[in-house]
């Protein structure tokens, strides 16, 4: 580790409440936080410093690479840093997204029947829309027009909220539909006579 100089942008500071297990042979790092734990399969070597509580991501690959892959090693190094930072956030906090239902009589209701959790949406259609929710997500309605999606995984939260939003995307003339919390829509002017 002393011979290799790693730039500062490839170092990650570890919070006190997160513990790490790193296996060099299996090429896996596991991070344990107060909320959950996550693992990441690695393509480059890591150096972990216990005194400073820092992880340094090197550009040394685990196996021999072809010339084409050697050109991409900096990109792999940067991606590994970004994924480790994201996992640090996911293991220490619960992530959520807030959705707003904008429109006349647009409503969201949560129903539980047996083992299934259903989200009932009234979005101006002639029928209700049913959306089945898996157990790894938590959905709750603060009001009938506000919906919160929460989970430990950032990717899962964004995917589910995007699926719900696609049921009624905001239209550009009146701005009705399902919007994210701070989303603003550029409203078009209609045809002038």
From TrEMBL:
InterPro entries, sorted: Ribosomal_uL6-like, Ribosomal_uL6-like_a/b-dom_sf, Ribosomal_uL6_a/b-dom, Ribosomal_uL6_bac-type, Ribosomal_uL6_CS
A Gene Ontology molecular function term of the record: structural constituent of ribosome
Keyword Ion transport: no
GO term, biological process aspect, one: cytoplasmic translation
Keyword annotations: Mitochondrion, Ribonucleoprotein, Ribosomal protein
Superkingdom: Eukaryota
Protein name per Swiss-Prot or TrEMBL: Ribosomal protein L6
Organism: Pleurosigma intermedium
Lineage: Eukaryota, Sar, Stramenopiles, Ochrophyta, Bacillariophyta
Gene (name only): rpl6
């Amino acid at each position: 580790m002393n011979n290799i100089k790693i730039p500062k942008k490839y170092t990650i500071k570890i919070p006190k409440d997160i513990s790490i297990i790193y296996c060099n042979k299996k090429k896996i790092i596991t991070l344990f936080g107060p909320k959950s734990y996550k693992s990441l399969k690695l393509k480059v070597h890591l150096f972990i410093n216990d005194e400073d509580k820092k992880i340094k991501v090197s550009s040394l690959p685990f196996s021999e690479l072809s010339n084409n892959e050697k050109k991409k090693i900096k990109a792999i190094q940067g991606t590994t840093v970004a994924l480790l930072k994201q996992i640090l956030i996911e293991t220490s906090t619960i992530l959520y997204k807030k959705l707003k239902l904008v429109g006349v009589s647009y409503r969201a209701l949560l129903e539980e029947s047996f083992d299934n959790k259903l989200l009932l949406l009234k979005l101006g259609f002639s029928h209700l829309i049913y959306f089945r929710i898996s157990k790894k997500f938590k959905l709750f309605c603060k009001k009938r027009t506000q919906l919160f999606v929460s989970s430990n995984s950032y990717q899962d939260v964004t995917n589910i909220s995007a699926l719900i939003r696609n049921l009624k995307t905001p239209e550009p003339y009146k701005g009705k539909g399902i919007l994210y919390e701070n989303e603003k829509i550029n409203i078009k002017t209609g045809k002038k006579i």
